[in-house]
Amino acid sequence: EVHPVVPASFKNFFNVTNTIFTFFAIAMLSYTYGNGVIVAEDFLEKEKLKTESLLLNILPYTIVQRLKNKPKIIADSHDDASVLFADIVGFTNMSSNLSADKIVTVLNVIFCHFDKLAESYGLEKIKTIGDSYMVAGGLPVKSDDNLEKIARMALDMISFLETNIETQKVGLKIRIGIHF
How many Å apart are CA 42 and CA 39, to the nearest integer? Predict the structure, then answer.
């Protein structure tokens, strides 16, 4: 049986073509993989920011930072902490008589003002739930005058609801409890 002789130039052409194709395929795979990694990293960063934003809506900034740095038990004991819990009186009646947009607007006005008060007194907002608001003094940093700050904030909260036009229109009042 006779085998045809393949010219050396033909063999060289296929060797070069195979080598170029292999390098091209590796380059394309690397490029695609690299882009996939970049896209995945961008997605993870966006999700991380969303998660942190959600955490900040329900937890104080200092606690979120501690959770990020040490995801272990972070419970502390605070002997001299004070807590204020406020409940909007008349909210149920108001919500049955107003549109959802108006309810959200009124609560937003109230709670934004309360947030500013808490910040001005150096108190730590704990959470808002429905028509309730909770703030603490002496947390996470100990303070010798936290009870006084809590009491002053309570008086300012009452005054705000009594003088604010939006809350007067719908007849809202506030009930406040303080634990020290």
Answer: 5
What pTM does this model have?
Answer: 0.61
Which of 63, 110, 126, 131 is an active site residue?
Answer: 131
Report whether 82 contacts 176 (CB < 8 A): no
pLDDT digits (tens, 9 = 90+) for 80-103: 889 999 999 988 888 888 888 888
Q: How open is the CA angle 99-105-108, to the nearest 5 degrees?
A: 140
- Residue 79's identity, in one-letter code, is D
- Decide if 143 contacts 137 (C-beta within 8 A): yes
Q: For residues 24 and 57, what is the distance between their CA atoms, to the nearest angstrom?
A: 50
Catalytic residue status for 87: yes
131 is catalytic: yes
Longest dimension (CA), the chain: 110
In whole angstroms, what is the distance from residue 128 CA to residue 170 CA? 20
Handedness of CA 137, 143, 149, 153 (dihedral sign): negative
Query: Of these residues, 88, 110, 150, 174, which one is catalytic?
Result: 88
